[in-house]
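= Protein in question =
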Amino acid sequence: MSSTKRASLAGLAALSLILGGCSTTTPRVPYTQAEAESADVPGMPSDVRFYADAPAFVFERFRQGVAAQAQARHEPVTFLALSSGGADGAFGAGFIRGLTETRQRPEFTIVSGISTGALMAPFVFLGPRYDDTLQKLYTDGYASALVKNVNLLNAVVGNAFVDSDKLGKFIAQYIDQDVLDAVAAEHRKGRRLIVISTNLDQQRSVIWNMGAIANSHAPGALKLFRQVLAASASIPALFPPRLIDVESGGHAFQEMHVDGVALRQLYVAPDEVIYGGRSGAANPIKDLYILVNNKIDPTFKVVDDTTVSVAARSLSTILKREGRNNVLSSYAYAQSHGMGYHIAFIDADVPEPPSGDAADQFSTEYMATLFARGEARGRQPSPWLSHPPLSTDPTGHALTAAQ
């Protein structure tokens, strides 16, 4: 979600911390750190997930496997990262549609998604035949219904301001067995769909191999697939966390997973790969595409002199910079590893919602407008930029040391 939107919800998160002692939720089964580090999802193959801070060889093994199958098909490896953005995901959905309409859309070998990007990811991964579904996610009114009836009492006695599993039901409308089977078929071809959640117990990003889940044909595959999507998009305090069943050494327990954006806003590779320089293995990725469902540069706003406004704006500023750092690191990664770099993001002149209220942020009218802007951008002859904006000075004049 955008920095503004996340900040407005940050107040809800802070309040839930204050009221946490009043909760009447069921106590969780305790488990140790050692058990956490060796936990597996029952009935699933071992390759359904790894951690974003895992050693570089884990990711290298993952992408080299993709490269081998792509080479057999005589196709280049392309990677698309879909960022967080909440309702602003409507921009990305429109952008993808615009690419389809002008036949400028690659078939992405690997697609990653976080938060709203995770909700988009299966349909972007499956190609143009799901463009109508992608549009409906943001413009048919279902998304706006998710944030209706936000209730303070729910946070006092429960674990979120939205009491029912609205997000889970929303996802179930669109993710059915046919979608699961389609993802599994693409996985067998060598393409990969990955979704990122935050394991709140461990404070670590989890990289879920969604195609491996779909292709497992396990009885609980569809449930887990939906759970992971919901986890990645579960804004803390607004939506309930997802408790995912795992086991270690015969001990069954549940991990708590929330919005992937708690730790990062987009995902292209583990930190050790991004910041560790070139590895011994050849990089198989030819082109890296970054679709940011957000504005990258700082936005001006006269902040009210109140505790909530100052706190929200301060957190917004931190998150804005975090998102920009994610973008810049992806560019540096592409440059150092010889990849083509392509990025699209929401232009600075796109109007913000009229208020910070969730109802305004997720209004169908606002999302439809953003979808149209994204679609228009995707139709342009050169829809992608070859590098992110490297300066945030709105005047365009770099300050010298003498100044």
Notes: Residues 307-336 form the longest helix (30 residues).
